[in-house]
Amino acid sequence: MTDKIPESRLREIFSAFLPDFSFRRAEQYFGGHINRTFFVDAEAPDGRPARYVLQSVNKHVFTNYEGLMVNVMRISEHLARKNEELGSADPERNHLHFLRTANGTMGVDSPEGFWRLYRYIGRAAGRDRAETPEEAREAALAFGRFQRLLADLPAPRLVETIPRFHDTRNRFERLEAAFAADAHGRAAECRADFEAFLALRPEALRLQEANEAGLVPERTTHNDAKFANVLLDDRTGRAICVIDLDTCMPGLSLHDFGDLMRSMCSDRPEDEPDMSLVVARREMYDALADGFLAEVGSVLTEAERKLLPYGGISMTTEVGVRFLTDYLEGDHYFRIARPGHNLVRARSQLALARSMLERLV
Ligand code: GN1
Ligand code: MG
Q1: What is the fold of 7-122?
Q2: Distance from the CA of 20 to the center of ligand 2, in angstroms?
Q3: pLDDT digits (tens, 9 = 90+) for 255-307
């Protein structure tokens, strides 16, 4: 995952999509934990400059990368149509536009990953942290709208790109198995964290249990609804486009609301090492609930509306459990920047989930 891709290789892949364009340069983007992403500057045959995002989908994580690409293309095309119908002022910038290769395939399959190309959306950017409740509300509007526009996505059901992705109960079972196996001799060091996560299990399972009891329905959801996955317009600050569609699949509305909470309730990053600084802020939660309900409030069931804060508790605990599991298993899933990174991430998620429970329910 850390090996470098030579520019000549990027040039070759790019030309599989746009053989008539001249490749100028590529710059790597280090935001995500899973895929590899490059911004490519090119020149169209008429001399016009054009920017694209060239990305290799991680085939270890997304073993069904073909199903994933079918999902992503169906979603983007559906959103393009809906935005057009609803008379968006800027329809080109409200959805991701994926290109096919000159051979008509969805991308280039290679040992490094499955390469795909989409148009870069200019004059807008995703950021790691929301500074103000207004920004949080904007992001919640964008993800709420995303769910609303996808509610009439024609059949068939989307492919489950990662089976059991938000099966919280199963995530706990995998943590217990990793702790018991202790393949890297790290269990002793994180016993207290492990036990603290188990203590949160009943609260973290409330959402899943409500779904199993038939109170909370399946919908089409994003499943990685963090602040960084929405582009904000540079000039207006308005959310214009939801990105990172790889985990879009059938899910629960509150999985997305929960990820919004996870990424915005605290003003500290996901890997904050000082746990005393990780606090769930009420004003951010209120702004998120306000924005989300403005878009999907009328379609949510009463149980969904009541469970809103449990979305955040489930998602924050769940990803914390996943970070700790990965730490115990030797960091094979999430890309890390330094030793112990996944343990720090797990601890800060634990602190945040507890703070949510204390302050938001
Ligand atoms: C991963 O790669 P990235 O940062 O978009 C993960 C999400 C986690 C997130 C935590 C496919 O997303 O589930 O919530 O890290 N994506 C996958 O930051 O596992
Ligand atoms: Mg993601």
Answers
A1: Phosphorylase Kinase; domain 1 (3.30.200)
A2: 31
A3: 999 999 999 999 999 999 999 999 999 999 999 999 999 999 999 999 999 99
- 179-207 as b/e: b if 16+ CB within 10 A: beeeeeebbeebeebbebbeebeebbbbb
- List where CATH 3.90.1200.10 sits in the chain: 133-359
- Residue intervals in the chain for CATH 3.30.200.20: 7-122
CATH 2.60.120.40 is held by the domain 133-359: no
Q: Are 67 and 47 in contact (CB under 8 A)?
A: no
Please provide the distance, in angstroms rounded to a whole number, between the alpha carbons at the two ends of the chain.
Answer: 40
pLDDT on residue 32: 84
pLDDT digits (tens, 9 = 90+) for 122-169: 999 999 999 999 999 999 999 999 999 999 999 999 999 999 999 999
pTM assigned to the model: 0.94
Q: Ligand 2 centroid vs 224 CA: distance in angstroms?
A: 5
Q: Which of 351, 321, 346, 326 is nearest to 171 (CA)?
A: 321
Residue with CA closest to ligand 1 atom 10: 319
Which atom of ligand 1 is nearest to 315's Cα? Answer: 14
Atom of ligand 1 nearest to the CA of 319: 14
**In this structure, which residue's CA is closest to atom 17 in ligand 1?**
34
